[in-house]
Design goal:
The chain is of the alpha+beta class and 152 residues long. It is built from 2 helices and 6 strands. The strands form 2 sheets. A 3-stranded antiparallel beta sheet has the order 1-3-2, with helices on one face. Strands 4-6-5 form a 3-stranded antiparallel beta sheet, with helices on one face.
């Protein structure tokens, strides 16, 4: 994962961070190992206080063949390789016009469905993934994903 410079604007920050991740995946690492790109690329926002500067990270999963011994970023590269425990993913698909209220509603509906099914997970991460044509509302398809440790 790499931190995104959100002061530049989200589009420019995403493009810059994507380039750093792709360079790592294309062999700019301590083993000169090229890896297949995986999906989804995930943007994680950390907002401490309302109105405060956001911290955002762009991350992507490594191919399974590199989970045990991932190549490390080169010295001076602002990348972090992080290993997560086994996780469970809960997904809700939706479409329509994107807005923060829409995302909150979808995550709320997903959380309610999970609770109704009798699960009581401790959430580590929430994210959404865009598919299809994200700029065309008629073709827009997204999923809200909530991630929890397997033992929860």
């Amino acid at each position: 994962m790499t931190e995104m410079d959100t002061k530049k604007g989200i589009s420019e920050a995403f493009a810059e961070a994507s380039g750093k991740l792709m360079a790592y995946m294309n062999g700019e690492n301590n083993g000169n190992v090229k890896m297949d790109a995986t999906l989804p690329k995930t943007v994680i926002y950390i907002i401490k206080n309302k109105g405060a500067q956001k911290t955002a990270y762009l991350s992507q999963f490594l191919p399974v063949s590199h989970h045990e011994n991932p190549p490390q970023p080169l010295e001076g590269k602002p990348l972090v390789v992080k290993s997560n425990p086994e996780m469970q993913y809960y997904v809700r698909a939706f479409g329509g016009k994107p807005s923060i209220d829409h995302y909150r509603r979808e995550f709320g509906m997903l959380a309610a469905a999970i609770k109704k099914s009798g699960l009581n997970a401790v959430w580590n991460m929430r994210f959404f993934q865009e598919y299809s044509n994200p700029r065309d509302e008629a073709q827009r398809h997204e999923v809200a994903v909530m991630v929890a440790p397997s033992e929860s």
